[in-house]
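Job type: complex structure
Entries:
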Amino acid sequence: DAKTTQPNSMESNEEEPVHLPCNHSTISGTDYIHWYRQLPSQGPEYVIHGLTSNVNNRMASLAIAEDRKSSTLILHRATLRDAAVYYCILRAQPQGAQKLVFGQGTRLTINP
Amino acid sequence: NAGVMQNPRHLVRRRGQEARLRCSPMKGHSHVYWYRQLPEEGLKFMVYLQKENIIDESGMPKERFSAEFPKEGPSILRIQQVVRGDSAAYFCASSLNLQGDPATNEKLFFGSGTQLSVL
C-alpha cells in the first residue's frame, strides 16, 4: 500500500468545520482513498472513501485534489463525539480483499 | 444485523498461560482480519482469513500465535505461553469481499476489541 502523511494532531472547536489533510504523493491510478476513525476505547469505523471525485455522506465529505496527490476529510460541524484518531489509507483496487495498513493518523481534539 | 462481535471484552492471563480471543463476523461476511494495538500505538495488521483458509499472515509473529476461521463458528486468535509484551488491544474486522465492486470496495467493519492483560 502507498504511503500517506497526516499531521499528528489537530484541534478545533465544537460546531465549527474541521479540515483534516492527507498527502499521498505516490498514489497510483487504481488506489482508492479511505478514511477511518477510531474513537477512544473502540475499534476503527469507516468514514468515507473515494477515487477521483469529491464524495459526501452523512458523516463527512472527502475532497480529492485534481492530481490526487492529496485529499481532505471535512467534518462540516464538529461535535464532541467527533474527537478521535482519523486515518487516511490507500487501498489498491481491484485486487480482492486486502488488509488495511494503518499509519499513525491524526488525533483530533474538539474543544467545547 | 449485529455488528462484529468480539469476546471476551477483557481477558487477564498470567505469564505462560494461553489466551483465546473470539470473533464473530457480521452476518454474510466471509473474510476476517485481526489487528493488534499496543498502548499509545497504531493498529498493526496480524492476519487475514477466509473460511478455512489463511490468506495473509505476514503480520503474525512466527511463534506462539495462531489463527483460524473454521467453516462453522467464530474466528479464533490463539496466543500460547503469553508474555507481558502481548498485553494489547486485539481488534477483529470482517468484510464482504465483493471483488471489483466500487460501491463497497471491501469496507471493513471492526469489533470493539479484546483487551488482553498479561500479569
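Summary: The longest strand of chain A covers residues 84-92. Strands of chain A lie at 9-13, 18-23, 31-38, 44-50, 55-56, 61-64, 70-75, 84-92, 106-111.
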